[in-house]
Amino acid sequence: MIVRIMGEGQVQIADGDLDVLNALDTELERAIEADDETIFRTKLHALLDKVRHVGKALPDDSLEASELILPPADASIEEVREMLGDSGLIPG
After folding, report:
1. Is there a contact between 55 and 2 (Cβ–Cβ < 8 Å)?
2. Is residue 84 part of a domain?
3. Is the pTM for the entire model greater than 0.85?
4. Residues 13, 52: Cα–Cα separation, whole Å
5. Where is the PspA-associated domain positioned along the sequence (predicted)?
6. What is the domain range of residue 49?
7. 28: closest CA among 49, 4, 8, 47?
């Protein structure tokens, strides 16, 4: 799966890493539902850090279509709330 972190670039994520990313996504959703800015910020950074860690960075000139777009680390809780789909930021 090709993932774009807004403002940073793209990474390729193996299917085997989706379960751990979905768990972090669920924690992020809970923080948004609770409208808890502190926990939201922690969970958003944890999710993005994990994507960066497990993902293989694609070259800046790569023209791969992103299958998933994640917010930047400085996104507001409201901005991320608007990006949430029925299954969070990460499908599955």
Report:
1. no
2. no
3. yes
4. 9
5. 1-92
6. 2-69
7. 47
